[in-house]
């Protein structure tokens, strides 16, 4: 029997109505993310990856925006929920990590305040209990001296350490879905590999499904199971990572692959 998807996006579109034109940012896309699986949305800048991610999170706010189709998280259509219901789901059932971890954290608050706030938002837990949990979360993402990290401001940490803190916050409540938007793009290559290994370990441990947004097919090969290739708002090709790399059918996919694979 086939496993139920954590996330199911079905015939989903986002159109921006402007005074003299309609921008079809996302145009009738469908894909699934499975528990402990990674589905990658790949494509060049402007193809609609971020608009899709923001729509899943219920954070797409713009004038003149029209959306169609369904986004289901564990069977619940997110498009039918109120803003308050969506807010409760974010952090608890779905979380996000971003490209630029140093800027995604609040620069004027110590790591301790930020991790504890994330815990307190969704869990009834006392001060000392929350601190214990914060220390556990930071060690779980491979930060060797969590007490020292908690006492720092983001600018006192490297990009890789900040991304580990973001991952600790994102996985704090074992979400069903993690949206990772270019999670390693801002990091150097050795740190990239460590962060991907950490994501792989955590999603396997906790059963979290990951929707990965990237333009980097190297990252896709490293961690994804399913791949959707996007161009101008549409999914032009999708399949397992093996199919897409071994037997690309669409000319755009071949072009993307040619740009990263040695000839
Ligand atoms: N608020 C908005 N109003 C009008 N058009 C928008 C808005 N937000 C995004 N777009 C357009 O939607 C399209 C998709 O943008 P999106 O940011 O999702 O691309 P992307 O694939 O994430 O690119 P990148 O990799 O550069 O982030 C682009 O043409 C963009 O200009």
From TrEMBL:
Spell out the InterPro entries in the cross-references: AAA+_ATPase, ABC_Ni/Peptide_Import, ABC_transporter-like_ATP-bd, ABC_transporter-like_CS, P-loop_NTPase
User: What Pfam families does the annotation carry?
Assistant: ABC_tran
GO terms assigned for molecular function = ATP binding; ATP hydrolysis activity
| Topology of this chain in the membrane | Peripheral membrane protein
Q: What is its main location?
A: membrane
- The answer to whether UniProt assigns keyword ATP-binding to this entry is yes
Instruction: Spell out the CDD domains in the cross-references.
Output: ABC_NikE_OppD_transporters
Domain ABC transporter: where? Answer: 7-257
As for subcellular location, the record says:
Cell membrane
CC annotations in GO:
plasma membrane
Q: Which UniProt keywords apply?
A: ATP-binding, Cell inner membrane, Cell membrane, Membrane, Nucleotide-binding, Translocase, Transport
Superkingdom of origin:
Bacteria
Q: Which family does it belong to?
A: Belongs to the ABC transporter superfamily.
| Name listed for the protein in its UniProt record | Peptide/nickel transport system ATP-binding protein
Q: Which organism is it from?
A: Desulfotruncus arcticus DSM 17038
């Amino acid at each position: 029997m086939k496993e139920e998807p954590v996330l199911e996006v079905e015939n989903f579109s986002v159109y921006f109505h402007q005074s003299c034109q309609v921008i079809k940012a996302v145009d009738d896309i469908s894909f699934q993310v499975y528990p402990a699986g990674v589905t990658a949305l790949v494509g060049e800048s402007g193809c609609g990856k971020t608009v899709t991610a923001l729509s899943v999170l219920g954070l797409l706010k713009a004038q003149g925006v029209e959306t169609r189709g369904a986004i289901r998280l564990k069977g619940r259509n997110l498009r039918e929920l109120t803003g308050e219901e969506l807010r409760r789901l974010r952090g608890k059932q779905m979380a996000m990590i971003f490209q630029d971890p140093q800027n995604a954290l609040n620069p004027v608050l110590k790591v301790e305040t930020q991790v504890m706030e994330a815990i307190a938002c969704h869990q009834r837990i006392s001060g000392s209990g929350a601190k214990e949990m914060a220390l556990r979360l930071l060690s779980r993402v491979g930060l060797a001296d969590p007490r020292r990290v908690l006492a720092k401001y983001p600018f006192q940490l490297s990009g890789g350490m900040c991304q580990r803190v973001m991952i600790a916050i994102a996985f704090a409540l074992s979400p069903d879905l993690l949206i990772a938007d270019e999670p390693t793009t801002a990091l150097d290559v050795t740190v990239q590999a460590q962060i991907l290994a950490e994501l792989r370990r955590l999603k396997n441990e906790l059963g979290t499904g990951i929707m990965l947004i990237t333009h980097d097919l190297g990252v896709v090969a490293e961690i994804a199971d399913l791949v959707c290739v996007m161009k101008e708002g549409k999914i032009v090709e999708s399949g397992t990572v093996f199919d897409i790399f071994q037997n690309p059918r669409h000319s755009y996919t071949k072009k993307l692959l040619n740009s990263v694979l040695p000839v």
